[in-house]
Amino acid sequence: MKSHLFTAVLAMSLAFAASAADGTALAFGNAWVRATPPNAQVAGAFLSIENTSTKPDRLLSAGTEAAARVEIHEMKMDGEVMQMRQLSDGLAIPAKQTVTLKPGGYHLMLIAPKRPFSAGQKVAITLVFEKAGKRTLEFAVSKQEPGDTASEHMHH
Fold first, then answer.
1. For labelling, which of 19, 25, 32, 136 has a CA lying 20 to 30 Å from the CA of 78?
2. What's the whole-model pTM score?
């Protein structure tokens, strides 16, 4: 009887480890790319990444067929100057936390888009994580953050 219980506990532990190793410990939300004018040299992509695991992960890189390359960037204020820099070591996704990539903060920069991005389109972007591996997501193209009603009212 004890050996069956041990086997069941071991199997459950391995199943949990397998699900964490294959990246199911990450959840994604609000994935969108800002619409671009013709001939734009860059486009911003944004999303939230929730790590439900007890172990941290790291977004190492990203890629898409819709642009020459994708870089992980951070925008932050240095005194009164807004600075943007590439995160060459990737972006930490702490255990049991959500990291939000949004305008004015962390974001993905699509360099040299192969075509303009128009509202209503979708862009497939593959995210590469240290532990979770590759995850390809569909990003909706929008002129502004979906559900952002404050900026809608600013134009009236």
1. 32
2. 0.78
